[in-house]
Specification:
Blueprint: H1 6-23, H2 28-35, H3 39-46, H4 54-64, H5 68-75, H6 87-94, H7 100-122
Helix pairs in contact: 1-5, 6-7
Length: 155
């Protein structure tokens, strides 16, 4: 894996923050109000002049609706090999063709599917001793119709 220098990492996280801010159609001042981080400091982060703390990255992630983990990786706080970014969630959040409300709905549906699949995978496999009641009857077994009735005779 190619390691980036601290300067490259800072520029990278700053560029990501600026891109996400613009995609959310926020000004620096609006982002500052949302995060409680000063406008000049945010400007310096975006330009790669300052290294934000994990706390500031957490606030920015929440305001920009990106994973804090992805910002930590870009800032060099976390190792990218140990923390791969969430592909689906990142793609949905980065998409500028849909509204913020639609993004949230898509992420809610996606997360519910992931949780449902995780629950199914965690269950022990079924080993039924009898076939399920809705299973097709065995081809060699007699028809479950009352055996005392006789077929109608053809005229």
């Amino acid at each position: 894996m190619v390691r980036r220098t601290v300067g490259e990492q800072l520029g990278s996280v700053g560029e990501l923050i600026a891109d996400r801010r613009r995609a959310a159609e926020l000004t620096l001042r609006q982002l500052a109000d949302l995060t409680g981080v000063s406008n000049p400091y945010l400007s310096q982060i975006e330009r790669g002049l300052r290294r934000p703390s994990a706390e500031v990255l957490q606030q920015l992630a929440k305001a920009l609706r990106v994973s804090a983990e992805s910002l930590y990786v870009r800032a060099g706080i976390l190792d990218p090999d140990e923390h791969p970014s969430g592909g689906v969630e990142s793609a949905v959040l980065a998409d500028t063709a849909i509204t913020e409300r639609h993004k949230q709905v898509l992420l809610d549906v996606y997360r519910s599917f992931v949780a449902e699949d995780a629950a199914v995978l965690a269950e022990p496999p079924d080993t039924p001793s009898e076939p399920p009641s809705d299973a097709a009857p065995d081809a060699g077994a007699p028809d479950p119709v009352d055996a005392t009735t006789t077929p109608k005779e053809q005229p």
